[in-house]
Amino acid sequence: MTELLNELQLALTSYALVTAFALVGLTVLVSYWFSRRFTAGRVHGSAIAIMIGLAMAYVGGVMTGGSKGVADFPMLAGVGLMGGAMLRDLAIVATAFGVRMEEFRSTGLSGVVSLLAGMVSAFIIGGIVAYVAGYRDAVSVTTIAAGAATFIVGPVTGSALGASSDVIALSIAVGLVKAVVVMIGTPFVAKYIGLDNPRSALIFGGLVGTTSGVAGGLAATDAKLVPYGAMTATFYTGIGCLLGPSLFYMVIRALLGP
Amino acid sequence: MVIYGTALLSLCLLAGMLAGEALGWLMGVETNVGGVGIAMLLLMVVTDKLKSARRLRPATDEGVLYWSAIYVPIIVAMAASQDVARAMSGGAAAIVAGVLVVAVAFALVPVVGRIGRPAPTTESGEEA
Disulfide-capable partner of A193 in A92, B44, B96, B109 (CB 3.0 to 4.6 Å)? Predict the structure, then answer.
């Protein structure tokens, strides 16, 4: 019996990506069933699937102590490949297939405005929270504020400014919380913020910025909106990495002193 | 052939990533700037051109559409491989900052939506 289990584990591990397809397929199946059966379709099946995914990631992280959620179980390493940047970006680009250019042309200005507004508001709120939490030096405050942009802007800014590793860790945590909150929260607030058309999705992507959050939040709301939100969000992290260690650091240093 | 579609999609992504890296290098940041967005624009332009030249066969479409259709499951896998445990262990400061910044971003969606709305006015100027 244990031999059989070992064989099974070996098969699942060496066919990791296939295992991931099967596991994710089952998760989606259960989620859509749950959505119909218990929420009468009000909570979208993909929203439930993403929440189950996050819950599994939490359990995986606690059990293995790793940083890749369930993908740190050798048997489920394929989930990391399936949900990693490579296939995620391929799928995001594919969603643009059949989208008409005109839908982007008319929203050029609001895309730029949303990117800047999202970036500035993230730095202001992140900076205030860092200050209230007791950080007083400009480097730490800027790094934590950068984490409120995305969990990539945080560490990039932190290492450029020479922040301590616990501050960088905190900035990553802030960005991760942001991504998780966006994934879970978006479908529930979509109705109230008018997130039901390409234009508002584009603005949403620029304001929120975190690629995984936007990708997950829009997938859980209405997959048709994904290309628009993804388009602006894809510029957010780059602009954040540009402004964080330069302009925002100078402003925060001017406010707090070196 | 289905692979033509998938290859086209892949080429667009690779070209976009390359452009994004170049943009990042020009801006002096060690990260990709807009690679995925550029790839999306490329795919839209190229498929539009091919369609109007009637060079895009339905089988080619399928090579792209499959990846578009598999998007949600890929996002579920992405969610399942996030470092949620670390997010939750960041303490109150991380959670408060993360929640607040999302709340404000959500609230700004209708506000920014009003600013840039394509209105009949040609140039509204600085005040809004």
Answer: B109
